[in-house]
Amino acid sequence: MKLIGGDQIMKSVTIQLETLTCPSCMQKIEGALKGLGGIDKETVKVLFNSSKVKLDFDEDKVSIGEIESAINKLGYDVIKSRIK
Question: How many structural domains comprise the chain?
Fold first, then answer.
């Protein structure tokens, strides 16, 4: 959790996905997440080798459920999410 611009609190999440099979998967997921409001676009990282997504988000603007749903809509299964 980190403070941005005074009182805005960002939470960090690591999302474990099913195995990613191609580099274009990373770009699709990254693009979809950066399009959501409440996500710190600078922190979005899709890790191909470990099939994980890491990012910071503002819980007041977007829920972990909405983030997972955006990934699911692309056809990728979320195995688990861990919020810090």
Answer: 1
User: Do residues 34 and 18 lie in contact, with contact meaning Cβ atoms separated by under 8 Å?
Assistant: no
The tens place of each residue's pLDDT in the chain, 84 residues long, gives 455 555 568 999 999 999 998 889 999 999 999 999 999 999 999 999 999 999 999 999 999 999 999 999 999 999 999 998
CA 39-23-71 angle, to 5 degrees, is 40
Which range marks the domain in which residue 71 is found?
A: 2-83
Backbone angles phi, psi at 59, to 5 degrees: -60, -20
d(C-alpha 52, C-alpha 78), whole Å? 9
Write down the pTM of the prediction.
Answer: 0.89
Residues 6+ apart with CB under 8 A from 28: 74
H/E stretch holding 45: strand 45-47
